[in-house]
Amino acid sequence: MVDLWFDPSKCFIGGHWVPPLGGQTLELENPSDGSTLCAIARGNREDVDAAVAAARSALNSDWGALPAFERGRLLTKIGRMVLERIDALAEMEALDVGKPLKQARNDVVALARYMEFYGGAADKIMGETIPFLPGFTVYTLREPHGVTAHIVPWNYPMQIIGRSIGGALAMGNAAVLKPAEEACLTALAFADICNEAGLPKGALNVVPGLGEEAGAALSGHSDIDHISFTGSVPVGAMIQEAAARNIVPVTLELGGKSPQLFFEDADLDKALPFLVNAGIQNAGQTCSAASRILVHRARYDEVVSRMAERYAALRVGPAMADLDLGPMISARQKEVVSGFLASVDKAMIVAEGQVVPDVPAKGHYLAPALVAGVSGDHRLAQEEVFGPTQVVIPFDGEDEAIAIANGTPFGLVAGLWTADGGRQMRLARRIRAGQVFINNYGAAGGVELPFGGVGKSGHGREKGFEALYGFSVLKTVAAHHG
Ligand code: NAP
Ligand code: MG
After folding, report:
1. What pairing do the DSSP bridges indicate for beta strands 174-178 and 204-206?
2. Cβ contact 311:304 at 8 Å
3. Ligand with minimal distance to 255 CA
4. Which atom of ligand 1 lies at the shortest distance from residue 231's CA?
């Protein structure tokens, strides 16, 4: 059981905790021991209808009337309140997702940072005046879309809610959030904090439930004006189809097969923690996981052996034990990742971490595995695994490195390790990705940095100031005054 100050078997709609209209609940699992944490609401189409209606009415009342700087103040206050609850939120997330406590604490800080960032930005998005014909004054207004739908996954609930809801509320939209059925506690806790902070009723609504039920009802709803989806490619395609039917814009933050490129002149001591952490953080269940490490042949053996040393020292255990890795989110996810690992010759697994002794038998533990020697077209080098495994692939020069790096359907993030400034600039342009990191990877989350993919990694940008353009719509006003 987990200690909660709100009732997770209810939906949060129109500023109130309400039981799901279908009267049904789902069990929420603790992946560290397989126990049931609590019952959560199984929202259905009627609950989604009520949430969308509540959001619509918020736009026409207190929330819609709030000046931008007041929205900003509220978001900033929510950020502060999130930080005040860091212990409770981190424990909740650790138990729900199975992530080590320190990672969960980082996620709380990120959620607070998004609220601060978007709180500060809320009154700084401006239109323009446009030089035009004599007798005219032409200007642009940035307005909210209206009701925004947010469908988020289970791997980083707080971070993804922060970037998505934070940006939408900053621009004055009213949001309906469908968290993942496998981890939704912090979404509900966040709604409660927003309520306590004084967020006007209906500005944020949360309907937990199943993807194919509540999620499909929300993404196909005829009265939403924008969809922000973070999740897998197949579901992303369904969301885009649903959006097309209602002609609403959609932001898709999907998967990846992100590479880090390590050149012969790079500093291995500096790179090593980033090479490994970016693969095993959150048990590899990270959209921007660096699941491919491409290494210049001159340094290949050295990099493989140094990474192998690190892998051998990795420890996996319950989230609250706060080791390097927690369990996988579910038995199903563990099975998927095990299937990938079974598809390579055992000799290619050059190092494995260890599941600590006496972990609960019903937890979904999996040792991280470093794989070397697979060909570039192997499924482990092409498909998103979403588990704690990385492949190391050699290359001989820039052209080959770029060909391998760009040789998947994805393009989310890439890392470049090289001391050569010219190469840094050349390759940052040639790599197909939404973010490129030079001599680092991930920039510690980078709330301020626009994020999103190309290709099968999706389209649209969240995070940073850029997200605010996506969460608003431009209106051109042309006044003829003679
Ligand atoms: P998923 O199965 O696509 O689920 C994501 C969300 O969509 C969940 O809330 C899910 O609800 C909901 N959903 C499922 N079926 C739906 C449907 N038919 N209609 C509407 N909504 C539906 O993804 P996941 O397995 O949870 O998450 C892992 C994936 O997310 C990976 O591919 C990862 O790369 C990607 N991801 C991307 C980013 C990014 O920023 N680019 C960040 C994190 C994760 P239920 O969970 O209740 O089914
Ligand atoms: Mg859970």
Report:
1. parallel
2. no
3. 1
4. 30
The pLDDT assigned to 445 comes to 81
Q: Exposed, middle or buried by CB within 10 Å (0-12, 13-18, 19+), for 249?
A: middle
- Report yes or no: 457 and 410 within 8 Å, Cβ to Cβ: yes
Q: Report the pLDDT value the prediction gives residue 444, as an integer from 0 to 100.
A: 74
Return the domain boundaries, the chain.
Answer: 11-254+460-477, 259-446
Ligand 1, residues at Cβ distance < 6 Å:
151-156, 178, 180-182, 210-212, 215-216, 219, 230-232, 235, 238-239, 253-256, 287, 384, 386, 412
pLDDT reported for residue 388: 98
Beta strands in 346-467, from DSSP E residues, in sequence order: 349-352, 354-355, 369-372, 389-395, 413-417, 435-438, 458-459
> What number does the ligand 1 atom closest to the CA of 210 have?
47
Question: What's the CATH architecture for 11-254+460-477?
Answer: 3-Layer(aba) Sandwich (3.40)
Of 29, 99, 155, the residue with max ligand 1 atoms within 8 A of its CB, to mutate for a pocket test, comes to 155
Residues counted in the chain: 482
pLDDT at 277: 97
Query: What's the 106 CA to ligand 1 centre distance in angstroms?
Result: 21
Please state whether beta strands 435-438 and 36-41 pair in parallel, antiparallel, or not at all (unpaired). unpaired
Active site residue 287: yes
Cβ atoms 258, 292 nearer than 8 A: yes
pLDDT, tens digit (0-9, with 9 covering 90-100), for 392-444: 999 999 999 999 999 999 999 999 999 999 999 999 999 999 999 999 999 77
Decide if 268 contacts 418 (C-beta within 8 A): no
For 259-446, which CATH class? alpha beta
Give per-residue pLDDT as tens, 326-383.
999 999 999 999 999 999 999 999 999 999 999 999 999 999 999 999 988 899 999 9
pLDDT grade for 1, boundaries at 50, 70 and 90: low
Which of 181, 235, 334, 463 has the most ligand 1 atoms within 8 A of CB, as the residue to mutate? 235
Instruction: Give the list of residues 6+ apart from residue 245 with CB closer than 8 angstroms, or none.
Output: 220
Query: Which ligand 1 atom sits closest to the C-alpha of 154?
Result: 26
pLDDT digits (tens, 9 = 90+) for 52-68: 999 999 999 999 999 99
**Residue 66 near residue 47, CB atoms below 8 Å:** no
Closest CA to ligand 1's atom 34: 255
3 falls in which pLDDT band (50, 70, 90)? confident
